[in-house]
Amino acid sequence: xxxxxxILSLSVFAYTGFTAQNIQNNxxxxxxxxxxxLGTILPTPNIYRTASGAPGHGYWQNKADYxxxxxxxxxxRNLKGSETITYYNxxxxxxxxxxxxxDENQQSSVKKADFPYSxxxxxxxxxxxxxxxxxxVSDNGYGVNLEKVTDASGTPLKYTVxxxxxxxxxxxxxxxxxxxxxKIDWNYNIPNRMKMGGRGGYENFPEDGNxxxxxxxxxxxxxxxxxxxxxxxxxxxxxxxxxxVFGNFKVSMNVPADHIVGGTGECKNYDQVLTSEQxxxxxxxxxxxxxxxxxxxxxxxxxxxxxxxxxxxxTFEANDVRDFAWTSSRKFVWDGMGVLxxxxxxxxxxxxxxxxxxxxxxxxxxxxAVAHTIKTYSxxxxxxxxxxxQSVEAANGMEYPxxxxxxxxxxxxxxxxxxIKNGMLGVVIHEVGHNFFPMxxxxxxxxxxxxDEGLNTFVExxxxxxxxxxxxxxxxxxxxxxxxxxxxxxQLEPIxxxxxxxxxxxxxxxxxxxxxxxxxxxxxxxxxxxxKAFKTYxxxxxxxxxxxxxxxxTMEDASGEDLxxxxxxxxxxxxxxxxxxxxxxxxxxxxDTPPREAKETKYKVDKPALNEFExxxxxxxxxxKNITFYVEKDKDAQDFYYRYxxxxxxxxxxxxxxxxxxxxxxxxQKEKDKFKxxxxxxxxxVNKGGLxxxxxxxxxxxxxxxxxxxxxxxxxxxxxxxxxxTYYFDKKLKSIQLDPMRETADIDTSNxxxxxxxxxxxxxxxxxxxxxxxxxxxxxxxGKVNPMQAxxxx
Length: 794
Known about the structure:
By secondary structure, the protein is an alpha+beta fold. It contains 19 helices and 36 strands.
């Protein structure tokens, strides 16, 4: 027999006598503001950023082009650089100073911008901890040393360094539409990043005496000047990452002759820096479908033994990028292959650089993971626009345009565990994925880490799934965020928190936003609506500077879904999801209910009561001779409060009126047979966690069959604490499982199950009748199907 299920929602009852008095007595009137619009929480739309989430007709952003030369002194571990910056003022504002970032000052003991943390006396301590850390310290010799700051003609410019920021005071105002050309010469001692930390520096390999350099945040970089922030010159303390300006780069790196260099963009002189054999392999790799070793393992091992004193200069160019990073070492094995991005027919060189210590992992997987990542991200966002994508094994993870640094080394004998392999694949996918967020969709990481890390972690999860359906993703699936959401409230903070203020940085900036987007895609919006909206956001804000409101508004604008309740709860709040099955009530139909007779009811409409207190406004309005009240002019208006919305044109005070209740007809035997096996189940839910979510139920029947039903989060709109759903089944129900696939991040699944254990629950009766044909639609108007009639349809 075909299973029939009828779902009764509150909207049905609204047409069958659910009155204002019911609402008044209903505890559902208790609201926590969860479904209110974000309103003024979001910035006011303007000509730069529209209410739809798209850039406005007045949108602008400034630009900075760089021409840089760098000299890597391996013996002194020092970098010397000279740059010419061309800065374009596309803003409507006149600028009398500009700001640049000196991120390398974070490594200095005297120039850094660290925020202090509370400290307590330990019960036990080692000699390192006993150092007088809160006393003045001497200069450790790290940080940027500015040699010269001039205009294009060589005239010195006045500048001020404030920790990791530098302000240049302009000799004349830089007006709208004008450009400024200036030059900076600088140097700094390259830190050992394995000991001092940080994103850039060198790693030394004592076994062979070689260094591996990751040159990042290595040059004075322009700050962003924007319509929403002005100058983004918040100090760099090591956590909040970067807000940067798009532009074109030309960079030349002078390094030891036996070094191999990888960098942002395309190398323009491979024919001068590679051997003929290496150049031939590089050209072969362009059309290969498998990675080709451009610099072989044997060549890398040989280079490790001989430290050349000769020099070579590598020249790279990159257009429409926000940053430039590079790597240099004689230890590198280098492989690559060509990848076609079908959405824009872009031919990309996917490449990897890695020392012998990572050979057995990176040779097998790295370049293929790079290719897989840019192809998958291209499907979910925009087609990858750049000519190169590179992965560098450097014992850490960090991202830059077209190049990223990852970990993943084997044991000394070349073996590795599944955990190391999957960790390596995850970090390669994640860091290569950063090419899209924030290298192309260029959010302000210094302010909103989640727009960078969270959005990227979400698409990383989608990409890992495409790599291997059994991939052990740790961020993205709803159930993986539960342990974090279980923490006490004083250990949680909203996603919408500044980078520097987040305590649980990994869960809050990476996992929770990624999980939220996955819940939107799988459970709330559905894949089709979500994917279209997400791609729209990526397309709108590619090569621009989006803010959170631009994302929130675009997701709603492109999908037609009101998601303010979700942004409010998941992004601005800290409440967890904990929905519980509170009670299940069962009832069977009373098939012998006698028909109801038609009858009439007499009623009166009383005159509305006058105001009990004459407030000051009413008194002053009466005294104001310039005011003429509408009801004094219009007789119909005087009767306004005596009208009643039951079809009467007017209702006279104290006059008696009649309301007729339509009668019913008895059920036929055939109709009784249809309904005799029906059982009604009212399921009561309690929102214990506070965060509203869809209600997803899996019903298991006594014959072993199953049925799944989902109600949107709107079921909580009239009562954010309690909700009920009534179902009519023609099979006996054995059990109910709430959120069977753990897709809402419910922190307590122990209250998500109900079982009809032996049928001990008391079963009540409910009346079942059919209305007469005349007037029968009055109880289920506006296209609503009478639920009891629908239950009997085949």
